[in-house]
Amino acid sequence: MLKLAKYTAMQPVKIDKIRIKERSDALEVIRLQLKRDFVGIDEIIDNLLEYIRIWYLMPEILTRPIVLCLWGMTGVGKTDLVRRLVRYLDFQDRFAEVELGNSDTTTWYSSVSTILTMNDIVDGKPAIVLFDEIQRFNTIEPDGSPVPNTKFTDFWELLSDGRLAKRTKEDLDTYVNSYLHNQRQRKKELAKAAVAVNDKSTSTDKADAPTVSDDPMLEEIGIWEAESVKRLIGLEESVVDIAEMTKGQILEKMLEAKRRKKVYEPVDHSQTLIIISGNLDEAFRMATQTSESDIDADIFHAFTKKITQVDIKNALSRRFRPEQVARFGNIHLIYGSLRHRDFEQLIDLEIKKIVAKTYERFGILLTVTQEVNKLIYRNGVFPVQGVRPVFSSIIDILETNLSKFIFEAAMRDTDRISLDYSFERQLIIAHLGADEVMELPYVGRIDKIRQSNIESVVANVSVHEAGHAVAYVVLFGLAPLQLKSKVASSYAGGFTFPHQIYETKDNMLKKIMVFLAGGLAEELIFGADNATVGRSNDRENATILAMEYIRVHGFNPSFQANYTLENQYNMDRYKTDNAIETMVAKLAVDTYVVLEKNKDFLLAISMKLKETGSMEGKDVAEIAATFELEAAIHAEGYLHLYPYKDTLK
Q: Which end of the chain has fewer beta carbons closer than 10 Å to its terminal beta carbon, N or C?
């Protein structure tokens, strides 16, 4: 007969109003502290603290853990924010930082349960666990095939309901059986020894006979075994106190734990705050441009601010199975890349720290002009790499050279140093006291690379980028965000940065023409035989668009099926090759005609870009206006699309 468990009414949680008020006030203090520590992520900090509020104020009412995800490019402060939060919450002893991975070299552990046990997060009390660099724990290969992964499978259990099954029964039975076996063996030995002592024929000296005091069950278990036992059966005593218990006492506690059976229940992590952090290049596609220091940081920021929760879930679906993506939950905090003013603020804050440290350690009052700030920005900011290169450049440019001036100030017995930089003369200028001036020749490492660009190559690049810009203006009626023909590279290179273009049949054709325009502009100005291989990446992008135009979207009336499906749905995509080649070839002719018709505009942009090395949208628009061409100026976040709403009436 099936017996039903007796229903026990849940005791209501008593609300401690004083504790809640104190912790709520503490969160506000922490909010201010974090905003002083980090630049450009105030919104992330606000959202993070709101999401953890219920966990911090009333963890007792949670029935499953809060799962909170932080996504962003490297160097924006994901991991550091969590570590700083843990410190301000005073949770260092209840915190575990974990990096999961498919490689056997990642860690010798094979389960999350083991890692949390080693960190003593097994008692069901509030704790924080950070799973960092989660993108390395992919369960799907880039080709869509599953990863043969058997490690950390309980990670998904933890995200699901916050309960982790324990291997306690197996471990506990092993411990108990081992103790009982040793005890029985020792009793047999004692019995044999007693018989031998009483046997008159034996020569054994009674003084040598084993006694009860030799019983291993009376031995203390020691510190190492005490740690295992504490985790195994959840003893409340400290490890030191457990280490002083005898094996017999431990055996009794194990047998009692078996009788209670509660020790076999899964560990309840409903009061554990789970934070997942990672970089998703599939969502942050500009993250691969790690060497790019010339693109305006605000442009990258505008693109990253357009990334939504849907984009994040799509990116996750390329690394994890659908049911796993669901377990990440819906709390996704998405970091934008840092803005131009964020980097400026960061540099200013770090310089202020150096000023304060210089006065504190040496009694020297240091002042630094904005020209030094600009020097650091020009040579230290790589927008998609975040703050780390900036810190490195501050050491390289300011702190390393400052040490020389501090030494000279000490020799001259002066307590004032003023630092400036002359871009024209390429000198760091230090005023020591009222009269003494020191000059130190200095060229920033990235500026030095920019200056190494060969003039003739810069002229070629200027025409190439002008070709993109002219096609962009004529076809879309827009001025590009930024043009560059002198960039920080050991070889001359450039770029033309467009807006976001809503992909339609017409816009895809225009985008292909813009890609083709760079190389074709070189042919028009310098002759076909002198065109360079700088067009290769443009041609690759144009070809991809043409393939998608025909194979995916069905914009060619002769090919209406999807030619990119796999397995049993596979179409013979090679049948579309001739159509793709014909399409790109025709668009190349059309693009050349556009450039030829606007050759004077092309030359004007080329000359200006060759002279300055850089142009903004307003510069292009001014030149376009002289040729009676419209080039609308829009900010970084602008999306160019057809007015569907106005048309639908």
A: N
Q: Are 468 and 514 in contact (CB under 8 A)?
A: yes
Distance (Å) of CA 526 to CA 73, 459, 522, 533, 607: 40, 11, 6, 14, 14
Range of the domain at 489: 452-647
Q: Which residue has the tokens 């041609």?
A: 539
Let me know: does 460 contact 600? Beta carbons within 8 Å. Answer: no
* Structural contact between residues 151 and 117, judged by C-beta atoms closer than 8 angstroms: no
Task: Quote the CA–CA distance of 398 and 607 in Å, as a whole number.
Answer: 36
Query: Which residues lie below 8 Å from residue 53, measured CB to CB, with a gap of 6+?
Result: 24, 27
| Long-range Cβ pairs for the range 34-39 (8 Å, 24+) | 34/81, 34/84, 34/85, 34/88, 37/84, 38/77, 38/80, 38/81, 38/84, 39/338, 39/342, 39/345, 39/346, 39/349, 39/387
Instruction: Look at the chain and report how many structural domains it folds into.
Output: 4
Paired tokens of 486: 């002198």
User: From edge to edge, which strands make up the β-sheet containing 495-497?
Assistant: 495-497, 482-484, 614-616
**Model pLDDT for residues 268-310, shown as the tens digit of each residue:** 889 999 999 998 877 776 655 555 566 778 878 887 888 889 8
Residue 409 and residue 425: Cα distance in Å, rounded? 23
Q: What are phi and psi of 290, to 5 degrees?
A: -70, -25
Q: What is the DSSP string of 540-552?
A: HHHHHHHHIIIII
Q: Two tokens at 600?
A: 């004077």
Residues 6+ apart with CB under 8 A from 633: 479, 617, 618, 621
Residue whose C-alpha is closest to residue 620's, from 492, 487, 471: 471
Work out the number of other CB atoms within 10 angstroms of the CB of residue 101. 16
**367: phi then psi, degrees, rounded to nearest 5:** -125, 145
Does 11 map to a domain? no
Euclidean distance between CA atoms 624 and 631, whole angstroms: 7
Strands 95-98 and 127-131, by their bridges, are: parallel
- Tens digit of each residue's pLDDT (9 = 90 or more) over 494-531: 677 788 898 999 999 999 999 999 999 999 999 999 99
Give 97-141 as a DSSP string. Answer: EE---SSTTS-S---HHHHHHHTT--SSS-EEEEE-SGGGG-SB-
Q: Is the dihedral of CA 363, 364, 369, 372 positive or negative?
A: negative
The amino acid sitting at 141 is E
Listed residues 245, 265, 285: the one ending a domain: 265
pTM: 0.68
Determine phi and psi for 15, rounding to 5 degrees.
-85, 120
4 within a domain of the structure (yes/no): no
Residue 374, burial from CB neighbour count under 10 angstroms (0-12, 13-18, 19+): middle
Asked if 152 contacts 110 with a C-beta cutoff of 8 angstroms, the reply is yes
Residues 479 and 459 in one domain: yes
CA distances from 71 to 41, 129, 138 (A): 12, 16, 15
For the domain that residue 370 is a member of, what is the CATH number?
Answer: 1.10.8.60
Q: With pLDDT > 70 as the criterion, what percentage of the chain qualifies?
A: 84
Chain CA centroid to CA 620, Å: 36
Is 344:373 a contact under the CB 8 Å cutoff?
A: yes
